[in-house]
Amino acid sequence: RPRVGVLALQGDVREHLAALGDAGADAVPVRRADELATVDALVIPGGESTTMDKLARAFGLWEPLRARLAAGMPAFGSCAGMIMLAARVVDAAPGQETLGVLDITVRRNAFGRQVDSFEADIPLTGLDGGPLRAVFIRAPWVEETGPDVEVLGRVPSGRHAGRIVAVRQGAVLATAFHPELTADRRLHAFFVAMVAAQARV
Ligand code: GLN
């Protein structure tokens, strides 16, 4: 079983640990650089990207994270995690930094405020069995993608139809929504398969 860490500084860490376990990974929380060194891949959870960024720097995790990602460690970010992985952020908080491994521009809080949180069924490239029920909570969307970024999913209908909400660039996966908050484990299984494939290369 691949050993997959969940960045455990802030956010919905437990939900990702449970989902990864269900999806066939050995899931462990990562708070320190020595813990990061033991994992094959990392999930960055939903939460608050500005807080996670500050804590990662305070815990001495920022440079080790950048180094592992630069070396090709597979990563999956949901919501705030997507923001953390992005190269460019619109409406970033003052002083907010990101890890910058995904060649995308994200807009923070793009769908509106907490009261504008919503659910939608998103068809996802590479995922069999129909659309995935997706929960959006003060979610970002992707405004621009670089040439190496594959768009995996868009909002299918309604006011926000066409907005990009799931992307992949090589071993890095990101969603604007929270697959860890629903019972459907297909996206976590997809990521665990990505990690296993990378390990075989
Ligand atoms: N709005 C949050 C941020 O900017 C993300 C919200 C979430 O992860 N549910 O980081």
Structure description:
This protein has 201 residues and is α/β, with parallel strands linked by helices. It has a single domain (3-200), classed as Class I glutamine amidotransferase (GATase) domain (Rossmann fold, 3-Layer(aba) Sandwich). Helices cover 27% and strands 29% of the residues. It contains six helices and twelve strands. The chain has helices at residues 13-22, 33-36, 49-58, 62-70, 80-85, 186-200, and strands at residues 3-7, 26-30, 41-44, 75-78, 86-90, 102-107, 118-122, 132-136, 141-145, 150-154, 164-169, 172-175. The chain is globular, with a radius of gyration of 15 Å. The protein starts with a strand and ends with a helix. The mean pLDDT is 96. The chain binds glutamine. Residues 46-49, 79-80, 83, 108-109, 137-138 line the site of glutamine.
> How many structural domains are formed by the residues?
1
Would you identify the regions where 5 or more consecutive residues have pLDDT less than 50?
none
The CA-CA distance between the termini, in Å, is 16 Å
CATH class: Alpha Beta
Helix and strand composition category: alpha/beta
**Averaged pLDDT:** 96
Write down the CATH topology: Rossmann fold
What's the SSE pattern?
A: EHEHEHHEHEEEEEEEEH
Q: Give the number of DSSP strands.
A: 12
Largest sheet: 7 strands, mixed
Instruction: Provide the helix percentage.
Output: 25-40%
| CA gyration radius, whole angstroms | 15 Å
CATH H-tier superfamily = Class I glutamine amidotransferase (GATase) domain
Which architecture does the CATH hierarchy give at level 2? 3-Layer(aba) Sandwich
Q: Taking strands numbered 1, 2, ... along the chain, how are they ordered across the largest sheet?
A: 2-1-3-4-12-11-10
Shape: globular
Q: Which range does the strand content fall in?
A: 25-35%
- Please identify the oligomeric state: single chain
How many helices does DSSP assign? 6
Small molecules bound in the structure, each named once = glutamine
